[in-house]
Amino acid sequence: MKKLLLSLLFISFIGNAQLINETFQGADFPPTGWTTATNVTTRPWGFTTVIFNATGQATFNITGAKSAGIGWIAQDQDAHLTSPAFNLTGYTAATLTFKTKMGYEYMVAPFANGNLNVEVSTNGTVWTSEWVEENEGVFVDYATLNISVPLTTYLGAPVVYVRFHYTGNDADSLSIDDILVTGTLGVNEVLTSSFTTFPNPTNDVITLTNSESTTVNSISISDINGRTIRTINVENLSEVQINVADLNSGVYFMNINSDAGKTVKKFIKS
Question: Could you report the per-residue pLDDT of 176-233, keeping only the tens digit for each?
Fold first, then answer.
């Protein structure tokens, strides 16, 4: 039976993971990995501190020192702000949440001169609208709206983008903030029972075995706060030894990707 001693070196996210978390508090716009485009060069997406004067900043800022915003103009506008790609492979649930401020009168009724669409794509070319401000019914001008958009349709997709697509003519300015995409990885409970970790608790090396001789393709380790070690390829092994000597004492979760599916085992580092 093959064995492999692995060192845990790299950090990423797994389990109940945050796949996108953007608060627009950095120094650069668009933030790293994000892209933006507009057909009106004087009306781009940007920080509210740049797009608006002091009065506009006070009206449209949502949380923190600044938000992302776009200003209206009396001509055709078409501008979008697009997220980095994220991966929904293996996820059983995923949701986009964000906050937004806008005027009801010019965006919805009676004038309905503009739209903010949340669109999703799996290739960066074809986009599907999953939310528009009319979905919220009647709301107060410039009140903070807390929006939740299910991403169920895109579960299992290896590449997913979301974008905020503003269109209008003599519509209204608006802002967005606190964009969060969260997902939950599925766990196969029957598969879990076939795996064993020992010694548990452990001080230095923990061994993973399984009663069905299931081939393991990769393993990740996450702590109780969701911080994890990046997925490590183990090249089709049926027994794996992992060096956890460098971890602090506490509870950890071993995410297992095998030929039979994905599962999770808990262990304690003493």
Answer: 999 999 998 766 666 777 889 999 999 999 999 888 878 888 888 887 666 677 677 7
pLDDT for res 190: 66
The amino acid present at 79, given as its one-letter code, is: A
As given in the structure block, the two tokens for residue 16 are 């109940």
SS3 (DSSP) at 27? coil
What is the reported pLDDT for 229? 72
Using DSSP's 3-state secondary structure scheme, residue 106 falls into helix
Which residues have C-beta within 8 Å of that of residue 153, sequence separation ≥ 6?
A: 120, 128, 130
Report which secondary-structure segment, H or E, holds 239: none
Q: Which domains can be identified in the chain, with CATH numbers?
A: 5-15+187-269 (2.60.40.3080), 33-185 (2.60.120.260)
pLDDT of 120-152, one tens digit each? 999 999 999 999 999 999 999 999 999 999 999
Q: What is the DSSP letter of 65?
A: T
pLDDT at 235 over 70: yes
CA-to-CA separations, 210 to 15, 181, 232, in angstroms, rounded = 21, 34, 18
Residue 151 one-letter amino acid: L
Backbone angles phi, psi at 224, to 5 degrees: -70, -15
Burial class of residue 241 (count of CB atoms within 10 Å of its CB; 0-12, 13-18, 19+): middle
Conformational region of residue 156, where left means phi above 0, alpha means psi within -120 to 50, and beta covers everything else = left
Secondary structure letter of residue 107 according to DSSP: H
Q: Is the pTM for the entire model greater than 0.90?
A: no
- How many whole angstroms separate alpha carbon 191 and alpha carbon 211? 10
Beta bridge partners of 182: 18, 95
